[in-house]
Automatic annotation (TrEMBL), chain A:
<keyword id="KW-1133">Transmembrane helix</keyword>
<dbReference type="GO" id="GO:0055085">
    <property type="term" value="P:transmembrane transport"/>
</dbReference>
<keyword id="KW-1003">Cell membrane</keyword>
<feature type="transmembrane region" description="Helical">
    <location>
        <begin position="211"/>
        <end position="240"/>
    </location>
</feature>
<keyword id="KW-0813">Transport</keyword>
<feature type="transmembrane region" description="Helical">
    <location>
        <begin position="264"/>
        <end position="284"/>
    </location>
</feature>
<dbReference type="InterPro" id="IPR035906">
    <property type="entry name" value="MetI-like_sf"/>
</dbReference>
<feature type="domain" description="ABC transmembrane type-1">
    <location>
        <begin position="94"/>
        <end position="284"/>
    </location>
</feature>
<feature type="transmembrane region" description="Helical">
    <location>
        <begin position="33"/>
        <end position="55"/>
    </location>
</feature>
UniProtKB/TrEMBL annotation, chain B:
<feature type="transmembrane region" description="Helical">
    <location>
        <begin position="12"/>
        <end position="30"/>
    </location>
</feature>
<keyword id="KW-0472">Membrane</keyword>
<keyword id="KW-1003">Cell membrane</keyword>
<feature type="domain" description="ABC transmembrane type-1">
    <location>
        <begin position="95"/>
        <end position="302"/>
    </location>
</feature>
<dbReference type="InterPro" id="IPR045621">
    <property type="entry name" value="BPD_transp_1_N"/>
</dbReference>
<dbReference type="GO" id="GO:0005886">
    <property type="term" value="C:plasma membrane"/>
</dbReference>
<dbReference type="InterPro" id="IPR035906">
    <property type="entry name" value="MetI-like_sf"/>
</dbReference>
<dbReference type="Pfam" id="PF00528">
    <property type="entry name" value="BPD_transp_1"/>
</dbReference>
<dbReference type="GO" id="GO:0055085">
    <property type="term" value="P:transmembrane transport"/>
</dbReference>
Length: 295, 316
C-alpha cells in the first residue's frame, strides 16, 4: 500500500440512496441532539431577525448621558461606551454574523463540491493536475492570508464572503473526490454510461445524490468554521467594518473596559457565538450519526 | 524511504514558489506602500519617491520579485524597514517565543488528548465518558479568542493570578519563573482549544481498535486488560493521532497568532500583525514563507511518521 499524501480519508462504502435516505432522515430526527441543535439555531435566528421587529431600539443611536450603563428596565442589556443599546446591537450583530457565515459556507461548498466531482469523475491527468493545485493551496497559511487581505483591502461584507469562501473549500473537495472515486466504479454508474449519459448527467443524477450525506455534514462544519473565522477577524479589528455591529467586534470593543467590571459587554457576544456554534455542532453530530449508521 | 522523502521535498518546491509568487504580488498591488507608513504625516511625493528608490520599490514588479526570490534562495530574507535590522535577526528574536508556546502546547495537548480519549474509549458510555464528551464538545465549539478573553477576564483581571499579557514584568521574577508567569495562560488556551478535537478523534480511534480481531486474540491469549489496552489497542489507535500532529501545525500557528494578539505575546504572529499594518514587506513575506515551509514539512512529517508506526505502509 502506498502512502496517500496527507489524505487519511478512506472512502466508505456508500449504500444505494433510495432506501438509505429515508432511514437517515428518520434516524436524524430521532436523535435528541438534532432537536437541541435545531431549537438552538431557530432561537438564535428568531433573536437576530425577528427580535428587532419587537424591540424598536436603534443599534446605532448614541446617547452621551447613558454611557456604559448596566442592564436596567430601560436598556435590557445595558449600553456600550457610546451609549448604544446593547441588546439591539446583539440582535443586529447576529444578523450580520449569521448571514456572512452561512453565505460563505454555501459558496465554499459550491466551489468545493463542483471541483471534487469534476476531478474525481474525469480522472486521469486532469485529476492529477487539479489535486496538485489543491496541495499548493493547502500549504498557504489561511489565517495569515486572510489577515493580510483584510488589512489591505478592508472588505465589504460581500467581499468578505467571497474571501472566506475561496480560502476554505479545499478540504471539501478532497472529501468529495475520494467518495466519487469509489462511487464511479459502481454498476449503476456504468449502466447509466452504457445508456449514453454524458459526464454532466452522471455528475448530477448519479454522483451528487450519493455524496449528499458527506456534503451535508461538511456543510455544517463549514458554517461553524465560517462563523468562527468571521468573528475572529472582526475581533482582531478586521473583517466586518463598523459602525454596524457584529459579535466579534463587540467582543473586542468590550475588552477595553475589562477592568471596569462591565460584564454585560463581554459575556453576551461570546455566549451568543458559543450558542450558535454549539447548535450547529449538535446538528452536525446528529447528521453524522444518522449517515454512518446506515451501514 | 529516502527517495520518497526527497521526492516529496522536490514536490514542495512548486508549492512554495506559488506561495511566494502569490503573497509577493498580493502585497505589492495594494495601494499605500511602506514609504507612506514610514513617513507618516511628513510624507511628500518627493520623499515617498526617494524612499521607494532606496528600497528598490520603483523597479518593475517582476524585477523586484526576481531580486527578492534570488536573495531568498540564498537564505537572505532582506532588510526590515521598520526594525532597521536584517529580517532574519528580527525573526530570530520573535520566532522562539512562538515556538516555545506552540511546542509546549503540542506536547501537553497530545498527552492530555491521548489520556482522555483512551480512558473515554475504554469506558465508553460510563459517567467519565459522558462528562469528558460534554466538556470537549463545548471546548470544540468555543472560538479560540473567546476562550482567551475569558481566561484574561477570570485569571488576570478578577483573580489577578497572572499578568494579562506581555512576556516580562518589571518587578516580577526573571528567567523560567517569568516564562511560567507569562506563558501559562496562553499555553493553557492553546491546549484547551486543540485538545478537544484530538481527544474526540482518539476516543473513536480507540473504540475502533477495541473491536478488532487482534484485540480479541490478545484477550483470548489470557493477557491482562492492561496489556490488551496498552500493548495492542492503544498502539494501533495512535496512528491517526500521529497524522494529525503534522496536519495541525498550520492551525496551531493560526491559533497562536490570535492568542499572541490577545495576550500581547511577542511572537511571530504579533510580528506579522504589526508588519502588515506598517507595510513592512520583507517581514510579512518572510513569516508567510516560514509558516508555509512549516506546513509543508508538517504534511511530510505526518506521512513519514505514519509509515514509521505502521509497517504495512511502504513508500513509493
Amino acid at each position: 500500500m502506498a502512502v496517500q499524501p496527507s489524505t487519511t480519508i478512506v472512502p466508505e462504502e456508500v449504500p444505494d440512496s433510495s432506501l438509505g435516505t429515508s432511514r437517515a432522515v428518520h434516524l436524524f430526527f430521532r436523535n435528541p441532539m438534532a432537536w437541541v441543535g435545531i431549537i438552538g439555531i431557530v432561537l438564535i435566528v428568531l433573536f437576530s431577525f425577528v427580535g428587532p421587529l419587537f424591540y424598536h431600539v436603534s443599534p446605532l443611536a448614541t446617547n452621551v448621558t447613558d454611557l456604559l450603563a448596566p442592564p436596567s428596565a430601560h436598556h435590557l442589556l445595558g449600553t456600550d461606551d457610546l451609549g448604544r443599546d446593547y441588546l439591539s446591537r446583539m440582535m443586529y450583530g447576529g444578523r450580520l454574523s449569521l448571514i456572512v457565515g452561512f453565505s460563505a459556507a454555501i459558496a465554499s461548498m459550491i466551489i468545493g463540491v463542483t471541483y471534487g466531482l469534476i476531478s474525481g469523475l474525469v480522472g486521469g491527468w486532469l485529476d492529477n493536475f487539479l489535486m496538485r493545485v489543491i496541495d499548493i493551496l493547502l500549504s498557504i497559511p489561511t489565517l495569515f492570508l486572510l489577515l493580510f487581505l483584510d488589512v489591505t483591502f478592508q472588505p465589504s461584507p460581500l467581499e468578505l464572503i467571497f474571501v472566506l469562501a475561496i480560502t476554505s473549500w479545499f478540504g471539501v473537495t478532497r472529501l468529495v473526490r475520494s467518495e466519487v472515486l469509489s462511487i464511479k466504479q459502481r454498476d449503476y454508474v456504468e449502466a447509466s454510461r452504457a445508456f449514453g449519459a454524458n459526464n454532466f448527467h452522471i455528475m448530477i443524477k448519479e454522483l451528487l445524490p450519493n455524496v449528499m450525506g458527506t456534503v451535508m455534514v461538511a456543510t455544517t462544519f463549514q458554517i461553524a468554521g465560517a462563523i468562527i473565522t468571521i468573528a475572529t477577524l472582526s475581533f482582531l479589528g478586521l473583517g466586518l467594518p463598523p459602525p454596524e455591529p457584529n459579535w466579534g467586534t463587540m467582543l473586542s470593543d468590550s475588552m477595553s473596559y475589562m477592568y471596569e467590571n462591565t460584564w454585560w459587554l463581554i459575556y453576551p457576544p461570546g455566549i451568543a457565538l458559543l450558542w450558535t456554534v454549539l447548535s450547529i455542532n449538535f446538528i452536525s453530530e446528529a447528521l453524522r450519526g444518522a449517515i454512518d449508521s446506515r451501514f | 524511504m529516502l527517495v520518497y522523502t526527497l521526492r516529496r521535498l522536490l514536490q514542495a518546491i512548486p508549492s512554495l514558489f506559488f506561495l511566494a509568487l502569490l503573497s509577493f504580488f498580493l502585497i505589492h498591488i495594494v495601494p499605500g506602500g511602506p514609504a507612506q507608513s514610514l513617513l507618516g504625516q511628513h510624507s511628500t511625493p518627493a520623499r515617498i519617491a526617494a524612499i521607494n528608490r532606496s528600497l528598490g520599490l520603483n523597479k518593475p514588479l517582476y524585477v523586484q520579485f526576481g531580486i527578492w526570490l534570488w536573495h531568498l534562495v540564498h537564505g537572505n530574507f532582506g532588510y526590515s524597514y521598520t526594525f532597521d535590522q536584517p529580517v532574519l535577526q528580527v525573526i530570530g528574536t520573535y520566532l522562539p517565543h512562538t515556538l516555545e508556546l506552540v511546542s509546549v502546547a503540542i506536547v501537553l495537548a497530545h498527552l492530555l488528548a491521548v489520556f482522555l480519549g483512551t480512558v473515554q474509549g475504554y469506558y465508553q458510555g460510563r459517567w467519565f465518558d459522558h462528562v469528558i464528551t460534554t466538556i470537549t464538545f463545548f471546548l470544540w465549539s468555543m472560538p479560540v479568542f473567546w476562550l482567551g478573553v475569558l481566561f484574561v477576564m477570570i485569571f488576570a483581571v478578577d483573580l489577578g493570578w497572572f499578568p494579562s499579557g506581555g512576556i516580562s514584568s518589571p518587578n516580577g521574577p526573571g528567567g523560567f519563573g517569568s516564562f511560567i508567569m507569562h506563558a501559562t495562560l496562553p499555553i493553557t488556551v492553546l491546549v484547551l482549544s486543540t485538545v478537544a478535537s484530538w481527544a474526540r478523534f482518539m476516543r473513536s480511534s480507540l473504540m475502533d481498535a477495541m473491536v478488532q480481531d487482534y484485540v480479541r486474540t490478545a484477550r483470548s491469549k489470557g493477557l491482562s486488560e492492561f496489556m490488551v489496552l496498552f500493548k495492542h489497542a492503544l498502539k494501533n489507535s495512535l496512528l491517526p493521532i500521529i497524522t494529525l500532529f503534522g496536519l495541525s501545525i498550520p492551525g496551531l500557528f493560526g491559533g497562536a497568532l490570535v492568542i499572541e494578539l490577545i495576550f500581547n505575546y511577542p511572537g511571530i504572529g504579533l510580528l506579522t500583525w504589526n508588519a502588515a499594518f506598517q507595510r513592512d514587506y520583507p517581514i510579512i513575506l518572510a513569516t508567510v514563507m516560514i509558516v508555509g515551509v512549516l506546513t509543508v514539512l508538517g504534511n511530510l512529517l505526518a506521512d513519514l511518521l505514519y509509515g514509521l508506526v505502521d509497517p504495512r505502509i511502504t513508500y513509493r
